[in-house]
Amino acid sequence: MAADPGPAPASLGFISIAGTMQRAIGDFTLDPAILMPVELGPGETSGTTKELAWEAIVSGTLKLLACEPAHEHADYYRRFVIAVRPNIKAEFTGAGIMTDRNGDHELAVEIFRALEGLFPGDAVTLMNLALAHDGHSRALERTGREETAEAARESAFEAYKRALAADPGEPAVHYNLAFFHLHQRSFEKAREHFAAFVRLSDDAAKRAEALRIVKEIDAQGLAEGLFQRAFDAIRMNHEEEGVALARRFLETHPDAWNAWFLVGWGCRRLGRWAEGREAFEKAISLGGSGPDPLNELAICQMELGDLAAAERTLRAALALEPENTKVISNLGVVALRQGLAEEARGYFRTALELDPADPVAQGYLSSLEKK
Fold it and tell me: What is the model's pTM?
């Protein structure tokens, strides 16, 4: 079942094709009685046209189907688009994937929503839509906009659920959904979908990767309910409870770096900087990878007054992810606390170049400009 994307945009109009002499496009027969959606340019209005701009009609039809997949003429419109652009599925899929890889996740979402409207119930299209939403959520995470990132994550999960409903046996959906859950530290669900992928796929390399991750999850006990309860408690702002649950988990799994990360995360949110620093250092020593543990450790180091250590840690995080605006903004905060105002401005400006809406960089730079 498709999500409810809302009403069609105001830029759409409807035109009659009664004035054209053309009555067929391949095997598709045009019906002059059905008005065609068209994307209107500035100052244009709906009406009758004698010179059909097929691309404008195709564009308008795709937008209508994305917003109103149950429109009374939806089937007719779908057959029209496929007649005019028989290779549209391959073209749009390739364009959407490249757009997503290039970082324009919102445009990629629009492309795959258009394809979903044109090919409702296509599992791979829905999976690609989910990947675009997930890419957007991770980009928002890197800038610290957690509330907006959560909304994008919810959209990704809804698209994944529609993809699974459309084709429960599609291996690629299970594989990508497993990584989605892995990123959310929902290890039980990640394990479930990796296991399903291994059963369904004949891709030797990906099956080996899935089995490796399942083995790691099992070895650290991460699929156990106690770990998930700890994570959920901290995420829902019950940090004391979450830290206590994570420490209980560590009694039986002392080398699980993810659990040490949870302890550090909860302590950092509670302002227990020394305890947080110790936990993050333990997590990193046990294999905690990526910029997040380093960034969190640097915050604790900074609040404890060890600015030199915080700068070194942040530079290590930046080497792993050079466009992470959270890390760049935190380097600006460290520079500011070191009395290097001009250097701090440089970091905040860089963060804003990468993300003009970055709230931390905006706030600090605005404060600096007033001085």
Answer: 0.76
Task: Give me 271's structure tokens.
Answer: 């302002």
> Do 45 and 96 lie in a common domain?
no
Task: Compute the 3-state secondary structure of the chain and give helix, strand, coil in percent, each to the nearest 5.
Answer: 70, 5, 25
Q: Which two tokens stand for residue 137?
A: 């959520």
In a domain, 286, yes or no: no
Residues 207 and 121 in one domain: yes
Cα-atom radius of gyration of the chain, to the nearest Å? Answer: 25
Greatest extent of the chain over all pairs of C-alpha atoms, in Å: 79
| Beta bridge mates, 272 | none
Phi and psi torsions of 39, nearest 5° = -85, 120
Distance CA 265, CA 276 (A): 7
Tokens standing for 260?
């040490």
Average pLDDT value for residue range 96-125:
91
Structural domain contains residue 226? no
The CA angle 223-225-226, to the nearest 5 degrees, is: 110
Among 220, 243, 261, give the residue marking a domain's end.
220
Neighbours of 134 (CB within 10 A): 25
* Cα distance between residue 62 and residue 299, in whole Å: 47
Cβ burial of 235 (10 Å; 0-12, 13-18, 19+) is middle
Express each pLDDT in 169-199 by its tens digit.
999 999 999 999 998 888 889 999 999 999 9
Q: How far is CA 253 from CA 101, 153, 250, 286, in A?
A: 37, 29, 5, 12
Rounded-to-integer distance, Cα 296 and Cα 111, Å: 35
How far is Cα 39 from Cα 113, in angstroms, rounded to an integer? Answer: 17
